[in-house]
Write a structure and sequence with these properties.
By secondary structure, the chain is mainly alpha-helical. The chain has one domain. The chain is 86% helix and 0% strand.
Length: 246
């Protein structure tokens, strides 16, 4: 059991190393990267907008009444902004993209493996890592920080709608305290997390699809494992990065 686990971990690390190597070696498949960015990023925008808006509104509602107990309603803006920028924005956006694009990515590559399309690439002396996996990795590195940024902006405005328009907090207080307390480091830390989440999700989902089992059951199992493992790694890696960034 232990040896099997270690073997699987070693194969995953080797898979990531090979993918990173081919992602950095020209010629670069720009067209494929753009198509992957559309698949991972553009098509996930709607769910990011909805999730970000309702997350910010829920935060605004809960935090307003919590802060009012301490007479600190003026801190609503910076608390919402810091919560989204440093933690909730990167993590929730990554989890949403994992559920939508990550699962589809694992299933797509898994079906290509089952229908021997990957074997056909190898038979034609085309490297599947360069043509299939590396574009996904590059697209994830670019798309995840952008989606997290959209999530953060929409979430902050969602908190503004609830805190200012519905609960009566002054708009100057909301934005002024945010401007005073939110630093550039807070924004960058969240973007660094999103970048690493992009690597994790595309790596794990591509790996599970690439080494999927046979039959429909194998694809379903690989897709489920990809989503579950990606989600767990996102949360664990977020905790690790937070301990380093505090």
């Amino acid at each position: 059991m232990t040896l099997s686990l270690l073997e699987g971990m070693g194969r995953m690390v080797a898979f990531l190393g090979i993918t990173l190597f081919w992602a950095l070696v020209p010629p670069f498949r720009v067209g494929q990267v753009i198509r992957r960015m559309r698949f991972i990023g553009v098509k996930s925008t709607l769910i990011i907008l909805l999730t970000g808006a309702f997350t910010g509104m829920a935060l605004g509602l809960q935090l307003f009444y919590t802060l009012r107990r301490f007479g600190a309603e003026s801190m609503l803006g910076p608390v919402i902004a810091l919560s989204l920028l440093r933690e909730l924005g990167p993590v929730l956006s990554a989890l949403m993209v994992t559920g939508r694009a990550g699962s589809a990515l694992a299933a797509e590559i898994g079906i290509m493996r089952l229908t021997e399309q990957i074997d056909a690439l190898e038979a034609m002396a085309l490297n599947p890592y360069r043509y299939l996996i590396a574009p996904n990795l590059i697209a994830g590195i670019v798309a995840f920080p952008l989606l997290a940024s959209i999530f953060n902006v929409v979430g902050i405005y969602g908190g503004y709608v609830v805190g200012v328009k519905m609960l009566g907090l002054g708009p100057g207080v909301y934005w002024g305290e945010m401007q005073n307390l939110v630093r550039m480091k807070d924004i960058l830390d969240g973007l660094y997390k999103s970048l690493s989440f992009g690597v994790i999700v595309t790596w794990v989902c591509s790996y599970k699809g690439f080494f999927t089992g046979y039959g429909a059951e194998g694809v379903g199992k690989a897709t489920t494992e990809a989503v579950v493992l990606s989600s767990v790694l996102i949360l664990a890696w977020d905790y690790f990065l937070t301990t380093l960034m505090v």
